[in-house]
Amino acid sequence: MGPTVTGSLVVMIDDQSKVAESRRVAAVMAESEKLSPLAAANAAVIAVELASNLWKHAQKGEMHIAPLSPRGQPGIEFLSVDRGPGIQNIAASMRDGHSTAGSPGTGLGAVRRLSDRFDISSQFGKGTVLVSQIDAVPGNTGNEFTIGLATRPLRGERVSGDSWSVRFGEKPPRF
Length: 175
Description:
Largest sheet: 5 strands, antiparallel
Shape: globular
Structural class: alpha+beta
CATH architecture: 2-Layer Sandwich
Mean pLDDT: 81
CATH superfamily: Histidine kinase-like ATPase, C-terminal domain
Oligomer: single chain
Order of helices and strands: EHHEEHHEE
Number of strands: 5
């Protein structure tokens, strides 16, 4: 029986060797989440592409790899966060063959195609946040992202002091 992972694993991408570490973490998560062989292979490609992009474009960033089973359906979520140069034209960056780093330019497009759910936000000059989810059985989807949230503690702290709440079907509160 393989490992069971219950929380997000974070790989700090601050060296090119961390690309391979991201792939290894994705493999452990795929085994823990009992992904199909195809879904596990897709997870490995996504981990490598996202970590490579963090290194090539930002030279520093975070790759959060988390199980989806605690949310009700087995799978893996990748959250890539950097404070690099950002992406000036997201639509162009998603097209195969577009590259600003001299690479083949198929990475982000491949990540989008291999993901069951995908979203990206980038501010030129400030950084990029990208989320990709893979279900245990590829194509077994239909749910779109409804809410996304990421918090982390300040450097040197173990707990984040941030707070948040969600309300469904209600008007937003007035402040």
